[in-house]
Specification:
Helix content is about 10%, strand content about 30%. It has helices at about 15-20, 60-65, 95-100, and strands spanning about 25, 45-50, 55-60, 70-75, 80-95, 110-115, 120-125, 135-140, 140-145, 155, 170-175. The longest helix is centred in the middle third of the chain and has 7 residues, at about 95-100. Strands 1, 4, 5, 8, 9 and 10 form a six-stranded mixed beta sheet that branches. A five-stranded mixed beta sheet has the order 3-2-11-6-7. It has one domain: Oxidoreductase, molybdopterin-binding domain (Sulfite Oxidase, Chain A, domain 2, Alpha-Beta Complex), CATH 3.90.420.10. About 35% of the residues are buried. It is built from three helices and eleven strands; from the N terminus they run H-E-E-E-H-E-E-H-E-E-E-E-E-E. By secondary structure, the chain is mainly beta. It binds the ligand Nc1nc2c(c(=O)[nH]1)N[C@H]1C(S)=C(S)[C@@H](COP(=O)(O)O)O[C@H]1N2 and molybdenum atom (MO). Molybdenum atom (MO) binds near residues 32, 78 and 80. InterPro entries: OxRdtase_Mopterin-bd_dom (IPR000572), OxRdtase_Mopterin-bd_sf (IPR036374). This is Sulfite oxidase-like oxidoreductase.
């Protein structure tokens, strides 16, 4: 088990200091998505890294589940204003994923995470490397429930939670910062909760 860079546990901080502006604390774990929860057959699941249209590397579920795993516990913040503290995730860090793909560095500075439901969201690569993002396969010690994005979801907890694509099927490196589903519909290209970057003009 490796845990590299992924930090953020601040149990000693008062609630108010852990809540970004405009957020409230909840103990629930709301489910937010565009459509129905897709049924994903692990025998046919694949995770693909692409540069534009060109596949760079892909893994079956068995192969993916055998990659080095990282744990992270910390707070998540949804643009609909709920925050949840001390969520515990485990998965493959994007650093380890790039290394497993034989890439010394990411091919471009931006990417789109793609879901099996055809959801997309853009994230700068620098926000996923250096221990800042993972493809999570466990939540609270169990496989991720389908409603929360299982078998695998992106986790980029320092950005609003719409950036954490559920049912993620791959990462597509792009030459430019390309808007994903919500970013095309008025949401912020970056989405930093601490700067309250909810909408494109925030
Ligand atoms: N594939 C996919 N990922 C998605 C979404 C979606 O519709 N499809 N919704 C996003 C939004 S808007 C939010 S707020 C979070 C919600 O995650 P949760 O349902 O686990 O709380 O997932 C994000 N990831
Ligand atoms: Mo959302």
């Amino acid at each position: 088990m490796v845990t590299r860079g992924f930090t953020g546990r601040r149990p000693d901080k008062p609630v108010a200091e852990r809540l970004p502006p405009g957020q409230y604390l909840t103990d629930d774990f709301p489910v937010l998505q565009l459509g129905p929860t897709p049924r994903i057959d692990l025998a046919r699941w694949r995770f693909v890294l692409r540069e534009g249209a060109k596949p760079l590397k892909s893994w079956s579920w068995q192969e993916f589940d055998a990659l080095p795993r990282t744990r992270w516990t910390g707070d998540i913040h949804c643009v609909t204003k709920w925050s949840k503290f001390d969520t515990a995730w485990e998965g493959v860090s994007v650093d380890d994923l790039l290394a497993a793909a034989g890439l010394e560095a990411a091919p471009t500075a931006y990417l789109l995470a793609e879901g099996f439901d055809d959801y997309t969201t853009n994230v700068p690569v620098a926000d996923l490397t250096g221990g800042r993002g993972m493809v999570a396969t466990r939540y609270a010690g169990e496989t991720i429930p389908p409603d929360h994005g299982g078998p695998a979801r992106l986790l980029v907890p320092h950005l609003y939670f719409w950036k954490s694509a559920k049912w993620v099927k791959g990462l597509r490196f792009t030459a430019k910062d390309e808007a994903g589903f919500w970013e095309l519909r008025g949401y912020h290209m970056y989405g930093d909760p601490w700067r309250e970057q909810r909408f494109s003009d925030d």
